[in-house]
Each structure stands twice: as C-alpha cells, then as structure tokens.
C-alpha cells in the first residue's frame, strides 16, 4: 500500500463515493414507488395489486437506506474517531439486502398463480365500478367469460348479446398484474446487486482504515515515542516529518 493510498481521490475512496451514490439512489427509488403505491392504495387501473404491507415495506426500506447512507458518510468524514459508524453502515446494508430479497421473493411468488389468485378478487373484492373500469381498458367482459361477474356498466357488456362477442378478462388481467409485479421484483433484485457492491466497498474500506491506522500509530510512535498525537487518518504518511538522525 502506498503512502498516499487513503487520500480522498484514492481508488477505495472513489468507490465509496460511487457506492453511496448508487445506494442512496436505490433508496430514493424505493421510497418513490412505495409512496406512489400507498397513495393509490395498492390499486392499478381499478385492480388491487399489492396488500398494504408491501408499500409500507418499500417506504421503510427507502428511508432506511437514506439513513444508513448518512451514517456511512458521517463516519467516512472522520474515520479515525468514527470508524464504528462505517461498521454500522455496512451491517445495515446486509439487513437491507436481506429484507429486499425477501420482499422481491414475495412479489415474485405472487406471479406464479395470478389466474387463480384473482378469481376470488374479481368476484368478491372488486366492485362493479372497478370491474367496469378494467373491462373498458382490457376490452373484455367478466372474468372467465362474459357471464362470470360481468359489469353491465361497461357499454359492450351491457347485454348478453353484446357480451358474447368478447372474451373474459382473465387474460388481460393476468398480463397487466404480471407486468406490474415483474417490474417491482426486478427492481428489487437489481438493487440487491447495488447492496452487495456497497457492502464489499464498506468492508474493504474498514479493513484498509485499520491497516492505515496501525501504520500511523507505528509512525507516530517512532517519531514521538508515544501515541498521544494521532494524525487525521486520511492524511498521507508522506506528510509526516522525517525523524532526525
């Protein structure tokens, strides 16, 4: 390791800046999607997509990522006295990554049997207005067929004669729900890669700080005979005065 390895423009520090930027960007994105879903109450085009729990977790994840990034930057500014904050930062990344994976898995699992899952939702949980809204969008009537809980508010489904000319909404609904769910779980799984990158950078940074701190302590002990006057950790070792012969 060179003397100036821990300058603020060193590779490990630049990687820390990049990882923080990507990490906090993922948090802002999760917060945006979470708030948007909460405002819409989990509904898209009149169809319930998410239970209230998932949007809440998205908001919590976004806020947690923002707070942990602030903690990491706070520790990075003065790593000699605040190294524990960097340790807290990369432990929080592990926790966030685990929650993100679990949330992505839950959303992905919902895509495995959309047709059967939404059979009861269409018949018992969606009102006539929301069914009509989706029928207009999907150009369909009813769920399995036009006679399966079709909303007569839709002009094309108002009579049996008209409804017989269209298909049930199971296909369009499955396609729409699958599209929304796949977008969310794909984003969550992609953000896990960012979490891994940020964690590795944080881990390497802490290990490097320990080595650099030990070098500073040894250099200080050689020069002054004690460790009372520790230098700022990010100061290159070449800045130390040369001991007198």
From TrEMBL:
Keyword match Transmembrane helix: yes
Membrane association type: Multi-pass membrane protein
Instruction: Please indicate if the UniProt record lists Ubl conjugation as a keyword.
Output: no
Task: Provide the primary localization.
Answer: membrane
GO cellular component, alphabetical, reads:
membrane
Keywords annotated in UniProt: Membrane, Transmembrane, Transmembrane helix
Q: Tell me the compartments it is located in.
A: Membrane
Pfam families named among the record's database cross-references: Tetraspanin (PF00335)
Q: Which residues cross the membrane?
A: 12-33, 53-76, 88-109, 184-209
Protein's name according to its UniProt entry: Tetraspanin
